[in-house]
């Protein structure tokens, strides 16, 4: 079965590199000039595309492949799906983005189902940095698909000797774990950036994880999914490493520094979506709500800390 990666950012390119060491892959990007000329991406310095990777700027030609890895920012996924001109009935559409769509308040699998109802949706998520995948470092991810036979086939198709995929049928849990951990990573970055210390970060990670569990359970996810790679695993990575864009964004907020506006910070939009869900579902999500206000400049880090610390004492 043929594979295409839609999205020439760091993560999409890294997936194309990893899979291109095993088989033929098509990589679609909006700007292919540099990739054609140098076989390298400025997003992944020092990494060269394998010969088995074909680069194209023709979206519909790339979308004709059997398996499509959708690796664009979450807030651009709906636009990408709109641009694909033909129905993709029977094709596997694997979302590699992490977040909640602000316009519709849903995750990537629901967007796929709305735009391409005849396709088989799946989610690829978990603790992974693009640079690690591109350099061939060992990585384990969750592949969630509600269609068991197609999920097994995708697991075999997309695994490599150093990219190990664990299969799940809980797409809601997998995508919410990947989305919400970015929100908590912003909080943890702000905590460290403001000099509040590692103990405060540990508390934020723990209470943030409790919010991830509460919201995911309310939306139909299974708890064990959130304790796996797509939830706790990804949370651990992004809340403790400068390699996370969301964590670095939080660091900048905590230090009172500007952050490069060209860098995609999925957790900022997801925090707003989560805060909206908190109100709609009457479900307290204090960390997510504070991050939503903090990332939009409605709270300072000191005010955010005071808001969380002044909440009523309660049982754990």
UniProtKB/TrEMBL annotation:
Gene3D superfamilies: N-(1-d-carboxylethyl)-l-norvaline Dehydrogenase, domain 2, NAD(P)-binding Rossmann-like Domain
Binding residue positions for sn-glycerol 3-phosphate: 98, 126, 128, 181, 234, 244-246
SUPFAM superfamilies: 6-phosphogluconate dehydrogenase C-terminal domain-like (SSF48179), NAD(P)-binding Rossmann-fold domains (SSF51735)
Keyword NAD among UniProt keywords: yes
Annotated residues for binding of NAD(+): 7-12, 130, 245
Keywords from the named record: Cytoplasm, Lipid biosynthesis, Lipid metabolism, NAD, NADP, Nucleotide-binding, Oxidoreductase, Phospholipid biosynthesis, Phospholipid metabolism
Annotated localization: Cytoplasm
Recorded metabolic or biological pathway in which this protein acts: Membrane lipid metabolism; glycerophospholipid metabolism
Keyword Cytoplasm in record: yes
Protein name: Glycerol-3-phosphate dehydrogenase [NAD(P)+]
Organism: Mameliella alba
Encoding gene (name): gpsA
